[in-house]
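Hi V.,

You were right to ask for the full record rather than a summary. Here it is.
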Amino acid sequence: RHYQAAMTLAEQNDLIVTLPSRAAQLKRNNPRVVLREPPLEIPPLELKMAWSPLLQHNPANRWLRRLITATARELDGQPPAA
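Predicted structure:
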C-alpha cells in the first residue's frame, strides 16, 4: 500500500521514487510516469514473516502463513512448496 502512496505522490509532483520493478510496472502506461533503471545496483529485498510464539500452532494463523507463502512464491514464479 505504501508503494501506491509513493507513486501517487510522484505522479502529482516533480519527484523521483524508487520502487520494486513489479510495483513500478503497474504504472508503465501512465503518461505522467517515466520509468528508468537505477544508476547503481540495488540488492534484492528479503521479505520475512514474524508472529507471536503463542500463535505458532494456531490453525488460523498457520493457514494464513501458508497462504502468504504460497502467494509470494507464485508471484515470484516459484513452484508451490512440497
